[in-house]
Amino acid sequence: MARANPVDKHLITQREHGFSLARIGKMLGPGIIAVLAWLGAGDLITSSVAGANYGYSMMWVLAISLLLRFLIVNIIARFQLCNLQGMSILGGYAQLHPVFAWFMLGYALVMGHLTNAYMLKGAGEALATLLHLPYPLLCSFAVMLAVWLLVGRNIYGQIERVMKVLLCLMTLAFLALAIMSRPDLGGILRGTLGFSIPPDKGVHGALLVAVSVIGAVAGSIANFVHPYVMKEKGWTGPEHRRLQRNDLLFAVLVGIIINLAIWVVGAEILGPNNLKVETLDDLGQALRMFFGEAGWYVFFVGAFATLFASVAGKTTAFPRLITDAVQHIMPSRKQRYGKVLHQDPLHKWFMMFILVTPLVWSLPGMPDFVTLTIAVNALNIVGLPVISLGLLVMSNQKKLMGQYRNNLFENIALGFATVLALWVAFQLGAQLLTA
User: pLDDT tens across 198-236, in order?
Assistant: First the structure.
């Protein structure tokens, strides 16, 4: 069925009476949620490890990844808002070929499990450290139970607001620390334009770290969360296109500032003090060195808040994506349960799978938190070629997109993302085979 194109009276009223800060705050919804969804342990660990081990020499990886994130998410959002048949983003992939829906189902199940694996592990370790308990597994279980009991209930909204405040405090602490460290602006510029992979240093190889940064930022399946949040906000048609683009730009700019601050802390403080980011406490020590015990507590409280909010966010978002994929594979389920995804009984089981099964990675003998985080984010590179290629084809379909098809720069960028993902995956595979 063709999409209707109603006039947004609310927007017209705002244009007539001007924009207040309160109105702007209400409009900036999905972008803020996107920042919280993106800024998890992936960005925190990959950026700090890259900075601590390799200084600014791989800053170009972060720059390219952030640019690709904006382009990919913007095209995803535009497709959902502007396609002429009112399709969801998964519907767009599914209409190309049924194999895309199957791929998204498997990819979301695997990456949802693994993403929550390191999030739960990190949240348990952060909580155990704060409480001075030698039982990180028990603390991970407590986080899992709390998320299960709180998600979807009215009280969770209040807790999430507290978590956002704590996350902001940690972000401000890193930003202040980055400024106080007097970053080498020339080094940042040279690293951004350098396009080189330095020799391996530290526990994690340079190529693995580079792939992990790309996976955590540009290739993250969390990028698919944005359309679902837009829908809940009520942004459903071309009339919301400008709002969506500005909102996303705001989110990406905030992400740039945060990632850059974390990278600078790694390059200017952790590296010179021989802190290699092998545990969460290595990051905490950076804030302790400058701000004393208060800085250490700010970091761990903020890290716990980030990880807890990320576990809750992933537990909410991934089941929607998985259920949507299932309903495109089996359309009878959509006809039976309607367009509200959580009404499908499978949604609850997918939520349980995404939240409970990752606890196995918190058992003794499993990879440490930092190694698991880097490895899982590097795995995101597997899905990036499929995601970018599918997006390239469907966002250029005239019958679907009409005047909203990609411009030349966007097509080049998606092609570049595909080639980059294939190249780094090949290089990493060759390196692992010869190791």
Answer: 888 866 788 888 888 887 777 677 777 777 777 777 778
CA angle 123, 127, 129 (to 5 degrees): 120
Dihedral sign from CA coordinates of 96, 97, 101, 106: negative
Are 34 and 251 within 8 A, CB to CB? yes
Q: Is 404 exposed, middle or buried (0-12, 13-18, 19+ CB in 10 A)?
A: middle
Go through the domains of the chain in sequence order and give each one's CATH number. Answer: 28-434 (1.20.1740.10)
Prediction pTM value: 0.82
Contact 209, 374 (CB under 8 A): yes
Q: Is 21 helix (H, G, I), strand (E, B) or coil?
A: helix
Q: Which residues are CB-neighbours of 126 under 8 A, at least 6 positions away?
A: 280, 300, 303, 304, 307
Cα–Cα distance for residue pair 291/329, rounded to 1 Å: 54
Token pair in block for residue 289: 């060195």
* Backbone φ and ψ of 121, nearest 5°: -60, -45
Amino acid at site 110: V
Alpha helices in 18-58 (DSSP H): 21-27, 30-38, 41-54
Above 60 in pLDDT, residue 351?
yes
Angle 293-295-299 from CA coordinates, rounded to 5°: 115
- Sorted by sequence, the CB contacts under 8 Å of residue 330 that are 6+ apart come out as none
Compute CA distances 330 → 26, 91, 195, 321, 336, whole Å: 37, 12, 45, 14, 11
CB 90 within 8 A of CB 240: no
